[in-house]
Design a protein that fits this description.
- The protein has 2 domains: 257 residues, Alkaline Phosphatase, subunit A; 221 residues, 2,3-Bisphosphoglycerate-independent phosphoglycerate mutase, substrate-binding domain (3-Layer(aba) Sandwich), CATH 3.40.1450.
- The radius of gyration is 23 Å and the shape is globular.
- By secondary structure, it is of the alpha/beta class.
- β4, α7 and β5 form a beta-alpha-beta unit.
- The protein is built from 18 helices and 16 strands.
- α7 runs antiparallel to α10 and α9 packs across α11.
- An 8-stranded mixed β-sheet has the order 12-11-13-1-14-15-2-16, sandwiched between helices. Strands 6-7-5-4-3-8-9-10 form an 8-stranded mixed β-sheet, with helices on both faces.
């Protein structure tokens, strides 16, 4: 049986142009050598290849879900879009109960979520559909808590989304923009509780450093002070009174990692962030943010069976998942089909991400620490399957700071060199690839966001036969798991619709 390591270089896409390409600008001797010496191909990792609408940027969540499951799973974005098209959205029991609760108690409905059209964490069309739903049900007492993006979208794109929202409010006659907040505060996922608390205090307690008469005006004033979308300090409408007992809340973000902290602060008894009590509200999460969750879920998870980690575990093979904080959930929770519990024989190693305000301040992040620990584990020779995510290309790529992006690429390349050397010494086959692009296009359109480019896939092995093999073209991330099973000599389960990349 062959042993396999998946080396996921997060945010490392393919771009034939050198201009605005941080990978091309970086010194990457290890990658250059691997691309010359070993079989390689390009993989699709955006749009329908990962269950998203055509033309949509891939992301780490859908990427790891697709890699770990060996199939294309329609993502919540597509499921929700289809529900809106079919009309099922407007019959959703959780939404209707939220409105019913408000009518019964003569209380307000609060809609919280990220204003974006990229569809990475949320989609403004889903907010607009919720306003239509309120209109259909004759309910007008609706407060909107707009979270500004500036990360999956350009830093000042939020103003256009806010204008669209104001038009929708005017058209439907439903909704008041009660608060605005940058995602840096409202969507932190790294236990920076001080950030979450600022958003919570504004939305729930109606406490903010500044109040506004008009959300559009205040946002433009923020831009003048160089306070861009991601970093907007939470601000509230004059006269807004906060969340009251028996109100309903719908958090319309569908991606599960970034709404967790704010949701926990609102609904959970046990809460590590700061001293507060859970609110007596009817809370609806768009999807299952975590388990167990003291809230209703609008779009329940679809059960997934026979995932890569599960099949390997059943074969009695030990496996390891390792990354730093920022992508630890991706190589564990998302890779395992959004299940928290490890499989039998699955070990996990978490290396802390550096505590800096933004990652351009430390572009190497914790990549060298992750690599050092991984090399130790490889040398033990006890694992038949290893997954590592090197996060820099994505996290530093999101800052859009050119010099830092180049340094990030160089750090990842150095780590790939060390991992490859250690892996080959212990006779592992290494599959080196990415879940989506980012670093390879830092032009103004993609300055702080992912791309829709394909990603390089390299098969590295000591075996002459594998060094000479031909890899299929125009395939995608769903083919990684079947390739791993083929290499290990394990039968692919019928649920996996991907195929081995080895022709």
């Amino acid at each position: 049986m062959r042993k396999v390591i998946l080396v996921i270089r997060d945010g490392w896409g393919y771009n034939p142009k050198k201009e605005n390409n941080a990978i091309a600008a970086a010194k990457t001797p290890n990658t250059d050598m691997l691309m010359k010496k070993y079989p390689n191909t390009l993989l699709n990792c955006s749009g329908e290849a990962v269950g998203l609408p055509e033309g949509y940027q891939g992301n780490s969540e859908v990427g790891h879900l697709t890699i770990g499951s060996g199939r294309i799973i329609f993502q919540p974005l597509v499921r929700i879009n289809k529900a809106i098209e079919s009309g099922e959205f407007f019959k959703n029991k959780a939404f209707l109960k939220a409105i019913e609760n408000c009518k019964k108690n003569a209380t307000s409905l609060h809609l919280i979520g990220l204003l974006q059209s990229e569809g990475v964490h949320a989609h403004e069309d889903h907010l607009f559909a919720l306003l239509e739903l309120c209109k259909k049900n004759g309910f007008k007492d609706v407060f909107i808590h707009a979270i500004m993006d500036g990360r999956d979208a350009p830093p000042k794109a939020g103003i256009e989304h806010l204008r669209k929202l104001k038009k929708k409010i005017a058209d439907t006659g439903i909704g008041t923009i009660a608060t605005i907040s940058g995602r840096y505060f409202a969507m932190d996922r790294d236990k920076h509780w001080d950030r979450t608390k600022k958003a919570y205090d504004c939305i729930v307690l109606a406490k903010a450093s500044e109040q506004f008469d008009d959300a559009e005006k205040i946002l433009l004033q923020c831009y003048e002070k160089n306070e861009t979308d991601e970093f907007i300090e939470p601000r509230m409408l004059k006269g807004y009174k906060g969340v009251k007992e028996n109100d309903s809340i719908i958090f319309f973000n569908f991606r599960t990692d970034r709404p967790r902290q704010l949701t926990q602060a609102i609904v959970e008894k046990e809460f590590p962030g700061w001293e507060r009590k859970p609110l007596k509200v009817f809370f609806v999460a768009m999807t299952q943010y975590y388990e167990p969750m003291n809230a209703s879920v609008a779009f329940e998870d679809q059960p997934l069976n026979n995932l890569l980690g599960e099949v390997i575990s059943r074969a009695g093979i030990r496996q390891l998942r390792i990354s730093e904080t920022e992508k630890y959930a991706h190589v564990t929770f998302f890779f395992n089909g959004q299940k928290e519990t490890p499989y039998e024989g699955e070990d996990r190693i978490l290396i802390a991400s550096p505590k800096v305000a933004t990652y351009d301040m430390k572009p190497e992040m914790s990549a060298f620490e992750v690599t050092e620990r991984l090399v130790q584990e490889i040398e033990k020779g006890i694992y038949g399957f290893i997954v590592v995510n090197l996060v820099n290309g994505d996290l530093v790529g999101h800052t859009g700071v050119w010099a830092a992006c180049v340094k990030a690429a160089e750090a990842v390349d150095a780590c790939v060199g060390k991992i490859t050397e250690a892996g080959l010494k212990k006779n592992y086959v290494l599959l080196i690839f990415a879940d989506h692009g980012n670093l390879e296009d830092k032009s103004s359109e993609f300055a702080t966001s992912h791309t829709t480019n394909k990603v390089p896939f390299i098969l590295v092995s000591n075996e002459k036969e594998l060094q000479r093999c031909r890899l299929k073209e125009n395939r995608g991330l769903q083919d990684i798991a079947p390739t791993v099973l083929w290499l290990m000599g394990i039968k692919k389960p019928k649920e996996m619709t991907g195929e081995s990349l080895i022709a």
